[in-house]
Design brief:
The chain is of the alpha+beta class and about 130 residues long. It has 5 helices and 5 strands.
Length: about 130
């Protein structure tokens, strides 16, 4: 069953001042090591980071009924071998989701990322499923 839908659009200019300063504390607060490692395999790191951050915002909006606080590092946007984006939730955010859903239900998050020139956009759909015992 669809639990929530989230979307976010981000103007890349917001990240331009930071892209040259990867040692800035913002990056460590906003992205996991795996996300930062993945950036080196993309031609346009600016749009890579922008699309991932838009993805984090979209996921947060999709799961916000769980009463979680936005912690971007708890939402990781990686990709499968075929390039399909994969969103996973951990930390306090995952704990809030489990508390809200109970032990009989799991959350699956579907995500789509896209970017064009100066913009990155993301759509996330959070789906609940009964856990088979």
């Amino acid at each position: 069953m669809v639990f929530g839908v989230g979307t976010d659009i981000l103007v890349a200019d917001r990240f331009v001042p930071l892209i040259g300063r990867l040692e800035d504390s913002f990056w460590k607060k906003a992205f996991t090591e795996q996300e930062m490692d993945g950036a080196q395999y993309h031609d346009n790191r600016l749009l890579y980071y922008c699309s991932r951050f838009a993805g984090k915002e979209a996921v947060f909006k999709a799961i916000s009924k769980c009463k979680c606080v936005f912690n971007p590092k708890d939402i990781e946007i990686t990709e499968l071998e075929d390039g399909q984006p994969l969103a996973t939730v951990s930390g306090d955010t995952a704990d809030k989701m489990k508390d809200f859903l109970g032990t009989e239900t799991e959350m699956v998050i579907h995500i789509s990322l896209s970017f064009e020139k100066d913009y990155a956009i993301a759509v996330a759909v959070a789906e609940t499923r009964d856990i088979k015992r």
